[in-house]
Amino acid sequence: MAASVRHLLKPWTPSLCLVRWSRYNPYYLDPDPSKDACVPESEISPEQKELQELKTVRPIKAALSSDTSSSFNDPLISKFINMMMQDGNKILARGIMTQTLESIKRKQVEKYHKSPAAKKEEIECNPYTIFHLGLENCKPIIGLASVQKGGKSYQVPVPLTDNRRRFLAMKWMITECRDNKHRRTHMYEKLSQELLAAFANEGNVVKRKHDLHKMAEANRAYAHYRWW
Amino acid sequence: MTSGRECFPTENGDLHEDVKRHYRKTMSGFVIQDKVAKLLSRQNGKPVLRPIKPLALKNEVASRRMKKGEATCVTEMSLLMACWKLNDFNNAVCSKEVSAFYTCVEKAQSKAKGKQGTQD
Asked: Which PROSITE patterns does the UniProt record give (chain B) (predicted)?
């Protein structure tokens, strides 16, 4: 009885201590994990010099555990992995991503060896470039925002920020692969198919982007309802 | 303050000593704090003030009503849409309009950020 009551006398401390908070004072700078080669003093512009001096003086946020200084660290792919992750299972999400890149490479190399010599140079074998360009082809240029005017809400064409566009492209890709494909195929298989199609400007994700553009074009009369 | 001559400035162009002393007394926080304490006290019947938040000024002023702006980059958008309509929404063909639209959007965003910075 005394032993069970005794823990109530201790002050409560959290069992996990927060190392990196999501809300830092804006005075803190972002960490830069890349290993830059040492550039000689003469070649640095004055703004770069100022930036370097600022980094030595100002406080810097703690780095995330997913930031690496390796040359394989790609922020776009890290973001995609985070968006694919469910219930914090980063290992599974990363595994799917590596399998996707591998299957893209395999398909492209197969295509390369099967094609005649003239067409060999056109085939892109690097899965990272395919991923980047495929995602670029999925990004919408104009979005729609709901604006209320005179009691009625209209879908107004609106320019989107870069972050929003990137997010929409990734979200569409992931939902497309999760929902609209055959149940028994693996996620990496579905993703590789969809990414290769997006690289060639075909497929459902690019179709969805075109649908959004068509809606925006149809509603172009309401463009003046925006006030920003 | 005995005679009315304290209202007028002295030969040096400075205020009268009594007037300055009076100003110093009111400018100091003590007089105001005493008055606030009197308003909050229960010694003379019910207190006049019953504040729910601390009686202190905030560091900022309440924002004025925003001026209603107008839609930015409408011309670029309409050009882009015309190009799309002609070329069946092919972005490769309309790359010039697309880049013009992006530059316009960036300019508008930086302008809006600068304006927000000066306002706050």
From this structure: CHCH
B36-57 pLDDT, tens per residue? 888 988 888 888 888 898 888 8
Q: Is B91 on the interface with A (CB under 8 A)?
A: yes
- Contact pairs from chain A to chain B, CB under 8 Å: 46
Write out residues 99-118 of B within 8 Å (CB-CB) of A: 101, 105, 108-109, 112
Scanning B42-71 for CB atoms below 8 A from A yields 68-71
pTM (predicted TM-score)? 0.72
ipTM for the whole complex: 0.76
Q: Report how far residue A48's alpha carbon sits from residue A20's, in angstroms, rounded to the nearest whole number.
A: 27
User: Taking the CB of residue A179, how many other CB atoms lie within 10 A of it?
Assistant: 7
Whether the CB of B39 is below 8 Å from some CB of chain A: the reply is no
Q: What is the DSSP string of A37-97?
A: ----GGGS-HHHHHHHHHHHHS-BPPPPTT---STT--HHHHHHHHHH--TT-HHHHHHHH
Q: Are A219 and A154 in contact (CB under 8 A)?
A: yes
